[in-house]
Amino acid sequence: MTHKEANYENLAESIIDKLAHRNMEGYYCKDREEANAKAKRFLTPDCSISWGGSETLKEIGLIDDLTEAEGEYEIYDRKKPHPGISDKEFYGKMVTSDFFFMSSNAVTLDGELINIDGNGNRVACLCNGPEHVIVIVGMNKIVTDVKSGIARVRNMAAPPNAVRLQTDTPCREYGRCTDCLTDDCMCCHTVVTRMSRVPGRIKVIFVGEELGY
Known about the structure:
Shape: globular
């Protein structure tokens, strides 16, 4: 184990202690393979699963694994066509799924989750709906406090995401936030999760790598 890896583990464990006081469970995995396996261990036979947009979930291979396991679980993938059911009905199935996977744009040293969304479907599921929410976070997303977390999302996460999604936003062009109000704005909803009303509903898996934006 390198000094950096040891520090990641020590830092994660200190935040996991803070999460426990906020009714959230925390776990640490040394790499993406271990995190992928850990996330899937929470699943139960024939459960329903959905997820929010996340490069982290793709990078650890979880999206591919869940898609391939569609016969074992009820998978609600909003990126796929859903014939015979309206978008509204499909979203209803997603938001009431047994398990919802996502990442977090930032996590504070005190155990608060910071997320900023455009449409808001991801943060809506984080707040209420799915029975279990599994959040997978690379150690590059740890911040000192809420203010620095919001700054991180706007200036370090949103701009490359805008490039990926080809949004018509200033951050795509300038590489930093301009506090825009464009129709394509990705920063419409800012949610700080400081506590889970339902103990253990939110589980955070920290990964000792840099993942996502």
